[in-house]
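[retry 2/3] Insulinase family protein: previous attempt timed out, resubmitting with same input.
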Amino acid sequence: MKQLLRSFLLLLSTSFVFLAPAQGQLSGAPPAQQKPQQFQLPNGLTVIVKPDRRAPTAVHMLYVRVGAMDEVDGTSGVAHVLEHMLFKGTKTTKPGEFSRVVAALGGRENAFTTRDITGYFQQIPANRLEDVMRLEADRFVHNQWADEEFKRELEVVKEERRSRTEDNPRGLLFEQLSAVTFQASPYRRPVVGWMSDLDAMTPADAREFYRRWYVPANAAVIVAGDVDPQQVLRLAQKYYGTIPARPVPERKPREEPEQKGIRRVDFKAPADQSYVALAFKVPALRSFERTPENDDALALSVLAAVLDGYDGARLERALTRGPDRVADGVDAGNGLWGRGPQLFTLTGVPAAGKTPEQLEAALRAQVKRIADEGVSEAELQRVKTRWTAGEIYKLDSVMGQAREIGQYWVLGLPLDSDQRLMARLNEVTAEQVRSVAARYFGDDQMTAGILRPLPLDPNRKPRVPAAGGRH
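[retry 2/3] Insulinase family protein: success.
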């Protein structure tokens, strides 16, 4: 649909499809819910509005298309550190004042950083939307802080790394696994950053990252809840529309070279149990066009669900039950999409008396069994029915709707990607699942990580989290 706006706005003409129910779902959506609408301000900032009038609340999110993958070696973690610093004041707000104001409005707020995205959000009574839009726009363009404030917050981030990664043996294993799996891709670096990079980080590093990437054309405002799209657009123009336009920096491709042979990580750390993590390079879903890579990405997601998508699925039934079980727990997952390369993972905890090597072999054997014998139509229908139910239940969360729309924008996908995805997943056949199981799980595509447990220190005291963290 094309919409005509006032002459001072530059329209982004976009076709929108009503969020139609997935196959098997009751037709029609609740009358209080409407299709999302997308606009673009003259300075390049995207505005997306999703009305949902079932409760007098609203979610306001600012998504910046920048994350850990946009960092360079030597400054890993700067995207996440900068996310913390956006709570440290502007020309008109003091450090911490943003959060205090949102709380006084009866709302809640936080932020997050991933490999692909930095996001900031507030959930507030709908009639206080203008207040948070003013605050968020102010810190987007006027973020500033003293060097001493940066140094204090950097210590908070370091403690976050210690508590969430360095004190977590599996977290450390996955960090090492990513570093070995990827060579050219920036996904090899941890989002929180290497400790040596955090030790060396300066206020100038964060300020430069902020100036480089926090530009209107690299950001989107997503508002969902009890709101009127035209009113939201007027507020966005008032508070965000005056931000000067600047070009988005060029992003150079960093393609991952073809892997030739198994890669292995043997990682030792104090732990109660060993752990096995197998990562296989697989294609990502880049669009909904019918290409071999996109078709395979969808079939791999169905394969993951057949293996581990419900209670009593194949991995649990075959590996964790009975007197000869080889695992205390198992998982399978497929990285369907993202700005960088994706992985299919098989993980598990060996049962007492079983070795990590036995579990590794058992996990791979279950995939090979599907490659040899295929899957049943009953299995396919079971996972598809569960997905369809999930599409209905997710509409209960306004926050979830906003985050989902924001993710689609970051990936350059249409706003109705949830329904397009469900339609495509429902078309995946048993033969496609068998085919991807046969083609993507060879030795040359695998990086295997094993956690070898060391004795725990009986005198070690639990770490006390540092004050000031955002998450």
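[retry 2/3] Insulinase family protein: The chain has two domains: 37-239, 263-454.
[retry 2/3] clearing retry counter.
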